[in-house]
Amino acid sequence: MRQTPEEATEGTTTASHTPPDAERLRRWRMVLGADSADSTGCALTGQDAAMDGALNALYGGSAGKKPNGRDTGGRSAGLGASAPSVARWLGDIRTYFPSSVVQVMQRDAIDRLGLSALLLEPEMLEAVEPDVHLVGTLLSLNKAMPETTKETARAVVRKVVEDLERRLESRTRATLSGALDRSARISRPRHRDIDWDRTIRANLKNYLTLPAPDGGAATGATGTAAATTGTVVPERLIGYGRSSRSAEKDIVLCIDQSGSMAASVVYASVFAAVLASMRTLSTRLVVFDTAVVDLTDQLDDPVDVLFGTQLGGGTDINRALAYCQSRITRPADTVVVLISDLYEGGIRDEMLKRVAAMKASGVQFVTLLALSDEGAPAYDHEHAAALGALGAPAFACTPDLFPDVMAAAIEKRPLPIPDKEYQP
């Protein structure tokens, strides 16, 4: 589909004295493309023609040209299979369009024209605009990637990871530190551990007016006689949490690494690295398809984590949960986050029994259908409904909402489900 007139002409300048009708025709010509715009009678020149060529190479019909100018020979689009040609095209779209549009066009080129193999060439990787979806594509090609390309690919992935860490780390730390502080307060403190300021504030509603001692008049500082006095009844005591060298909560991130979960794997790996750097949390990262891999020992570098995944393959959620369950030592202080589209290839009933058993032992269980900025995910509605019936509602979650979800799980509050339509 062609870009809107506003997108197609962004970054260009049009003479202020262009007649309104001519400008309208120019915009329609940009929208319709060469194959459908003969009736406009509008010829494009200069930068408009270059932009139209870049768009037509990807979205055009049989009349489209490859970036090197050759005919497509009846193909539906014209990028062909030449790496230098595609590299020039990538340079063109970065010149004519903003970054957000470039990322969409790159994704369309990979999906529509099967250009994934060209990303195995270093010069191609140097020309692309890095984003989460490109990282997912590179990870899916990881096993086929030649050694000459791997360092360039790691540099591309690292750039995206560092951008995500800058955006997500500070809010994640602030939100979860507050949640851990609140969850660590002691409700039955010893006398020397009572936080009197917070205890008094929490019990002001229990203020009682009492008669003066011995029924007589009490004289205040102003010399005025008063027949009553007051007190606060501390029904609820709040104490200071004692410092501890051990982690307060155990977090287990269990991530489905099937091909459809690529963006979720990228975001979850970055979050896992952030959580692992917090001393009050003990974080475990488990990825799975039909096999289960524990990547906890690589959490100091999320790029290593990502290259330790293998996108694609089948799915055995039951096996992955069995592994996670075997590593839980403090159920009441553990949060398990399953990130999956729930298309189970293993034993469905066993999977549900494991979830029920974990919840019965005190584990906080969270099911995320996706952890990404994309729209409503595709997922197994039957399995999602079954998990919801166990008290583990399944919903999609954006990266910006993830810290709030984790904070609610740590404090054992209701989860902030963003949109009811994502629930089964």
Number of helices: 15
Spatial order of the strands forming the largest sheet: 7-6-5-8-9-10
Proportion of residues in extended strands: 5-15%
Q: How would you state the average pLDDT, rounded?
A: 78
**Overall helicity:** 40-55%
Shape: elongated
Your description of this structure?
The protein is α/β, with parallel strands linked by helices. Helices cover 43% and strands 12% of the residues. The chain is built from 15 helices and 10 strands. The strands form 3 sheets. A 6-stranded mixed β-sheet has the order 7-6-5-8-9-10. A two-stranded antiparallel ribbon has the order 1-4. Strands 2-3 form a two-stranded antiparallel ribbon. A hairpin with a 3-residue loop joins strand 6 and strand 7 (292-294). 36% of the residues are buried. Residues 4-17 and 62-77 have low confidence and may be disordered.
Map the helices and strands.
Elements: H1 5-8, H2 20-32, H3 46-59, H4 83-96, H5 99-113, H6 122-127, H7 132-140, H8 147-184, H9 196-202, E1 207-211, E2 218-219, E3 225-226, E4 228-232, E5 249-256, H10 262-276, E6 281-288, E7 292-294, H11 302-307, H12 317-326, E8 334-339, H13 348-360, E9 364-371, H14 381-389, E10 394-397, H15 402-411
Parallel strand pairs: 5-6, 5-8, 8-9, 9-10
Antiparallel strand pairs: 1-4, 2-3, 6-7
Helix pairs in contact: 3-4, 7-8, 7-10, 8-10, 8-15, 12-13
Keywords summarizing the entry:
424 residues; two-stranded antiparallel sheet; six-stranded mixed sheet; 43% helix; alpha/beta; elongated
